Predict the structure.
Amino acid sequence: MTFYDTTASTGQLFTINSSLLLWATENNQVPTSVCTESCPPGFRKASIRGQPVCCFQCVPCPQGEISNHTDSNDCHKCPWNEWPNPEKNRCLKKHIDFLAYDDPLGATLSGASVISSLIPSLILRLFIQYKTTPIVKANNYILSCILLFSLSCCFLSSLVFIGYPQKEKCLLRQAAFGLVFALCISSILAKTIMVVFAFMATKPGSIMRNWTNPWVSYSITFTCCLLQFILCISWLSLAPPFQQYNIESLPTLIIVECNEGSPIAFWTMLGYLFLLAIISFIVAFLARRLPDSFNEAQYITFSMLAFLSVWISYIPASLSAQGRYTVAMEIFAILASSWALVICMFFPKCFIILFRPDMNSREFLMRRDRDR
């Protein structure tokens, strides 16, 4: 009912008793005067073609954008280091992702690296203690010591890949990895070549006697390492690795990683290690049946086969991984390939030294040679 009273006080001239009004809606509710309800935060208004302005649809904000007030006409992008919350009404800081020491995966790998590095050190101590025995003498004592030292460094080199990727770490970690593995594989290559030279020198009138000098093996090791050193220095001088923030792989994370600077230089460095390993494998495979009581060629063949298998498997695995798992894959390849060399090259010798001393004697060697 409506009342109009000119004698009433201001504000009460015209009154409506709304309780008596009847609306043609369900439950007798007041109808809305717009086609669409208000769009909540996290949505934007989008006009409907052919409809009045008051008619619109609410469209969710696209990925990476927010709207923080009602009936927003546009959504706004979050800064590069932030990401929308599930409701898309405010931006939150992105989580920074890298393989940290306090991360369970990082702690496991770092512990495995440190513990593994002790094994070559213990074997080296064993070789020093038994350096006068035939099995140690027959396998080039100095080269074996260099190889054990380099294997210990190989295990420890994986620690450089763990932790926040600072500029210094990015600059040195791949170069350090390439150099210590070059020393390791070069030592094995020198041992392999010396096995062949030693056999050829036993033939009457052979000119290979001059090549059995220990300095030949040291020269081979030094030359192979020098080439890798020159490659790494050129890489660090012309296109050095650097730290970068990767926001493309996983939009909700900031992946702090090392850009290798020059992918060609990185794969050339890794390919050089492959080349040394392949040459060692081929020479050792051809020399595996030479008549020598302590012929290392068989052990070298298996060690190089395991080494190559690990790194060939690493390539597709690393390309499919993201974030901290890419670094973890390389660390795993370093540890696995180093363990393959330790097991194949030294465990049989350690077994003979510790548990079969009867085989580690000059009499046993001479009797075995006569049997052949």
Q: What stands out?
A: The chain has a mean pLDDT of 82. Residues 24 and 31 are 8 Å apart (CA to CA).
